[in-house]
Amino acid sequence: MNSHQNARLTVHGRALLVTRILEHGLRPEEAAQAMGVSVRTAYKWLARYRQEGLPGLENRASRPHRCPHQISDDQRQSIINARRKRRIYRQIHQETGISVSTIARLLHREGLNRLAALEPAEPPNRYEREAPGELLHLDIKKLGRFDRPGHRVTRDRQKGTSRGAGWDYVHVAIDGHSRIAWACIKPDETGASAWRALIAAVRYYRHLGIRLRRVLTDNGACYRAKVFARACQRLGLKHTTTRPYRPRTNGKAERLIQTALHEWAYARAYDNANQRAEYLVTWLHQYNWHRPHSSLGYQPPVSRLPLLNNLVALHS
């Protein structure tokens, strides 16, 4: 333990003080005056040396030997157990009789002061299909239409509005192995639009030599529609859905949507929604053919295709 910055005596100074009293014959008052400390301090170190010897001159913590108001280990554990049952501070106080301030300090020290800490995030559950086409992730993102640049560009919320412009529904798809993405914009998210988007996606992946076998969606009404089920049956696709309120199961599609928002939808200033829709094709090409992916060893998704024809091999 370090000495206080204003301390007059170190361990060596205390030993010198005791030596001058016991061996040199100085009175405690004279030794204290010579060392620049009070007489009471001289008597304190002299008494401690006589009781414990040189170890008694070492620094000690100022923590008291006993604390009558300190909670016991059983009380501490009861507070933690009550907190894990999602009790608030006042409820724990009523159950244990311990003050709210003590409960707050204990739970803060244990890292349980926030209720969110009681439910830690689940570890990442990353998985990858063994071959392209084994699983296709589908999802929909709703984007507002506009006929003039919005306040993100103009910085004016009064002039940059497009009231009544409607919505664009971006139907996205991504292969679970290669990460090759596809998307199109439909006027709604009905079952009819969903199966039309599915047919267009099947044609796109078939053009790349990928034969789809299974699709994964959430529990949206368009994916539970009969027309979508008939489309999957005619195309020979097995349709599975995610568990309710479990978007992480369809995480690849969710991640694709976020990437599209950052790199396409909100990446530049578009004059209107039609111009944004036209750029979607260009962005998808960049995403599939040129954009490096960390999950693919920083290679583009098209590098995962098993067989490349001459046109793909020579593409740059």
UniProtKB/TrEMBL annotation:
Pfam families: LZ_Tnp_IS481, rve_3. Residues 128-308 form the Integrase catalytic domain. It comes from Alloalcanivorax xenomutans. GO terms for molecular function: nucleic acid binding. It comes from the Bacteria. This is IS481 family transposase. GO terms for biological process: DNA integration. PROSITE patterns: INTEGRASE (PS50994).
